[in-house]
Write a structure and sequence with these properties.
The complex is a heterodimer of chains A (about 260) and B (about 300). Chain A is mostly helical and about 260 residues long. In chain A, about 75% of the residues lie in helices and about 0% in strands. Chain A has a two-stranded antiparallel sheet. Chain B has a 6-stranded mixed sheet, sandwiched between helices. Chain B has a 4-stranded antiparallel sheet with strand order 11-12-10-13. The radius of gyration of chain B is 24 Å and the shape is elongated. Classes of the chains: A mainly alpha (about 260), B alpha/beta (about 300). The interface between A and B is medium-sized, with 20 and 25 residues.
């Protein structure tokens, strides 16, 4: 009970810091919406034959949700926690009675809430502006995908912190990993334009199966509950790898 | 006497081949303001970080508030406040929010408004930490360390990089901690800071304590001779004063300067001025000066000309 109160305390301040930081608001909250508008404008109105003539605008809703969640979890944590570590903030917190796991739980809780807000916002924009139906019948699948995906990408983000040596390298290394994954996974370019071999490789990396799980929920052709356990297992396996790596290599103190 | 707040016996710390701390013994008593002074790389920060529970030692025994800092407990952390060497604030939180955030980590925190007053940030409560001046940020740093109402406070170089007026303000604040009954351990490069604040000073050099005493008595300062200095006009004959020893003469463009090392400055000064009045001689730029802590420091750290 006391721990829960502390996590909420931590989370409340993490929220303030997130919304007051212009770079996190722009890159995490606004950029996905801008991408949605651009892609829907350029590629919207056509159909993807390989996906049973799925409407391209419908395709981009789960694609941009994937981008937004990965950005709110993996990218945000890798960059912000590295910056906080190099500034000595993590070390300072370690010198207080606050348990380390509560500190991490606050950040992860913040990443989950931002992910949920972005999922809701993009779904609503898709429905109101582009007339893409809200997948109410697949709501459980959407939530399961969000939870497994957000948890896994948080773990990967914290693991990546350990591999980033300095504050200056944080943005470069994180983007170097995330941007190619978006392209290879069909998040930016419709997957019909991507060679099969590339898609096969992307399928064992974490972003593509996460995207496919969301895509299945938005695809009107999907029957049944639409929970893609196979894809989610790949995402969760990556998450577990991230968790173990983070436990093994996470640093609280700046370099030197 | 109550047991010491900090006990260190035979403390050693090596980083690979390099021995940063080479055998330190020390006790710090409750309510003491204790300064650790030394040049960069002397082992100050290593020692402090061992006491704070951030680093493991290679050898020796350490007890801080009755606990070995290598196995810190939550309860122990409640009683310790740490001001790190570099300012570490969340730039997007205001002064009040920063203090609220850290206050939430402690079972019995001090009231935030009171801490704002203690560190002299009244009127700045709504200002974001990132917008404060360097001196104000440092005071917020101290406020964050105080908000848990610790018994023992570590200040690692609290005024490095400050302008003189910000340093004065910071000194007043640390002096105020004494009235709260806190035990304070601070590291500094600055002699005058140690002199102004500390009850006792340890000078560390090469991982060892080379001097440990009150600022008044450090390095046998009490027993060192006082310097009586003055200058005469170029053409004048050298002073020969009955009852006084030889002057050391230095030739300077404006006339020779004479220095007398005196162990009884009151009597010697009286003889000197009596002689000058009787002879009608002028003692220009007359100065009586005890060796400064700075000179002692340079001597014991081996950095000075001596």
């Amino acid at each position: 009970m006391n721990s829960l109160r502390l996590i909420l305390h931590e989370f409340r301040f993490d929220q303030k810091v997130f919304w007051r930081n212009p770079s996190s608001v722009f890159f995490t909250a606004l950029l996905p919406v801008i991408f949605l508008v651009i892609f829907a404008t350029i590629f919207g109105g056509s159909e993807i034959e390989t996906l049973g003539n799925l409407d391209t605008t419908t395709y981009y809703i789960p694609a941009i949700i994937t981008l937004a969640v990965v950005s709110a979890t993996f990218v945000s944590l890798a960059m912000n926690v590295t910056i906080a570590r190099e500034a000595g903030l993590l070390k300072r917190v370690r010198g207080t009675p606050l348990p380390a796991w509560v500190f991490i739980a606050g950040l992860v809780g913040n990443a989950f809430v931002i992910s949920l807000i972005m999922l809701a916002a993009i779904t609503v924009i898709g429905a109101v502006i582009y007339g893409v139906a809200v997948p109410w019948s697949h709501l459980p699948a959407v939530i399961v995908t969000l939870l497994i995906g957000a948890a896994s990408f948080c773990c990967l983000g914290l693991a990546l912190c350990a591999a980033i040596p300095t504050r200056e390298a944080a943005s470069a290394i994180t983007n170097l990993i995330s941007l190619p994954l978006y392209f290879l996974s069909g998040v930016f370019i419709p997957e019909s334009e991507i060679p099969d071999g590339v898609l096969t490789v992307a399928g064992v990396l974490p972003v593509r199966p996460f995207f496919q799980s969301f895509l299945s929920s938005w695809d009107p052709a999907t029957t049944g509950p639409g929970i893609e356990w196979g894809h989610l297992a790949v995402v969760a396996a990556w998450g577990l790898f991230g968790l173990l790596a983070a436990i093994r290599w996470f640093r609280w103190t700046p370099r030197g | 006497m109550a047991s010491p707040v900090i006990t260190i016996e035979g403390l050693r710390k090596s980083y690979g081949e390099k021995e940063a701390v080479r055998g330190i013994d020390l006790e710090v008593q409750a309510r003491e303001i204790f300064a650790v002074l030394g040049p960069n790389g002397a082992g100050k920060t290593t020692t402090i970080e061992i006491l704070e529970g951030y680093r493991e030692r290679s050898a020796g025994r350490v007890e801080v508030l009755g606990v070995d800092p290598e196995s810190p407990t939550r309860l122990w952390r409640e009683r310790i406040g740490i001001v790190p060497q570099i300012t570490t604030l969340q730039p997007y939180l205001t002064v009040r929010e920063s203090l609220d955030l850290y206050a939430g980590y402690y079972a019995a925190p001090r009231s935030v408004s009171e801490v704002v007053g203690l560190v002299g940030l009244e009127g700045q409560e709504g200002m974001r930490a990132g917008k404060l001046s360097g001196g104000q940020q440092r005071r917020l740093d101290v406020g964050i360390a105080l908000v848990g109402d610790p018994d023992l406070l570590f200040l690692d170089e609290p005024t490095t990089g400050f302008d003189p007026s910000a340093r004065r303000q910071a000194w007043d604040m640390v002096a105020g901690l004494r009235d709260l009954g806190k035990t304070v351990v601070l590291t500094t490069h600055y002699m005058d800071e140690a002199q102004a604040l500390a009850d006792r000073v340890a000078i560390i050099r090469g991982g060892r304590i080379v001097a440990l005493d009150t600022p008044q008595e450090l390095g046998g300062r009490e027993n060192l001779p006082t310097h009586i200095t003055f200058r005469m006009s170029s053409g004048d004959p050298d002073p020969v004063v009955p009852g006084l020893g030889a002057f050391v003469r230095t030739d300077e463009p404006d006339g020779p300067r004479f220095v007398l090392e005196s162990t009884d400055p009151v009597a010697d000064l009286s003889r000197l001025t009596g002689w000058a009045l009787a002879e009608g001689r002028e003692l220009r730029e007359l100065e009586v000066r005890r060796p400064s802590l700075e000179e002692i420091y340079l001597e014991v750290t081996g950095e000075g000309p001596a």
